[in-house]
Amino acid sequence: MLAETLMKYQFPVFYSNLFSGHNTGGGHPENAGRLMAVVDYLKECQKKDSQASIWAEAIEWVEPAMQREVLPFVLRVHDESYVTALKALAAKGGGRLDADTVVSEQSYELALLAVVAWLDGLDWAYHHQSPAFALVRPPGHHAERDRGMGFCLLSNVAISAHYALEHLEGVSRVAILDWDVHHGNGTQALIEDNPNLAYCSFHQSPAYPGTGARSETGAHQNVLNLPLPPGAVITDYQKLWAEHAQPFLREFSPDLLLVSAGYDANQADPLAGINLQPEDYAWFTRVCLQLTSSVLFGLEGGYDYPSLSASVAATIRESIQRCP
Question: Residue 244 and residue 13: Cα distance in Å, rounded?
């Protein structure tokens, strides 16, 4: 019976092969191989002879609507001068915004396509009252109003949050949960002045970018930062969730939950020192869906291919099994 129910449910993953065209160069941790590894893993799960096929067959691969005009929504969040400069840099063949953040010839258009995927996924999650996943790159939660940084070009999640408030009928409050191992400095800066937006972040401290102290609470007490020390494990997250994050988000009572789903808090990840395991993200997914069924998960970090792939699969599997 469970298998029949799951087969009727379609879980959308908004993804395009074009994302591989964002070329960060050899040796860069945020590279095209990340998404290719996840896609290969999920498609392997979908094979009939796979033990995971019962849930994985429910995955529906959705190409973002490339004709969708998103620049007005981008300019709601980012300075026009920055967006213009980003476009010009890509048109000249690319370059670097800083030591870590690369722009290639196709990066501007693909950053816009990543926004499209987030907005398409958001529309789907809200109108179907069910979760969805935006499997995109470049990531976005470090991008600030007037600059990209930390591998990020455009703030996918902040753009989506403002879009939801202003363009989705019936949406009056949007919450963002960021479980990436690095604090989303850009997201916080771009939403903290709006009382109808809330931001909650679990992140390693000390770590890049050096922001996200508990004392940073937003102009309307709508920001909750929960820094964790290197070596933290899932029980540390669960304690903070029960004591702080869950009450904060429940009191805010969002119509939508957007998740900056970075998977670099895995023990195997080379860029941080938190000791989560891929299956821990099933718990994270479960508690998100207990808040609301309208959840969009969007990829941020995660740089160890096996743990990244297994973690994304854990998120999708839990979503499918809980929302038939």
Answer: 30
Q: Which two tokens stand for residue 44?
A: 């392997």
Question: Splitting the chain (324 residues) into consecutive groups of 10 residues, what average pLDDT does each group show?
Answer: 49 98 96 98 84 86 95 98 98 98 98 98 97 98 98 98 97 98 98 98 98 98 98 98 98 98 98 98 98 98 98 97 77
Active-site hit among 142, 162, 182, 203: 142
Residue listed under structure tokens 């920001």: 223
Alpha-carbon distance of 282 to 259, in angstroms, equals 14
- Positive or negative, the CA dihedral 263, 140, 284, 213 is positive
Tokens of residue 159, six digits: 């753009």
HEC letters along 204-234 = ECCCCCCCCCCCCCCCCCCEEEEEECCCCCH
- Whether the full predicted model's pTM is greater than 0.90, yes or no, is yes
| Annotated catalytic residue 142 | yes
DSSP state of 309: H
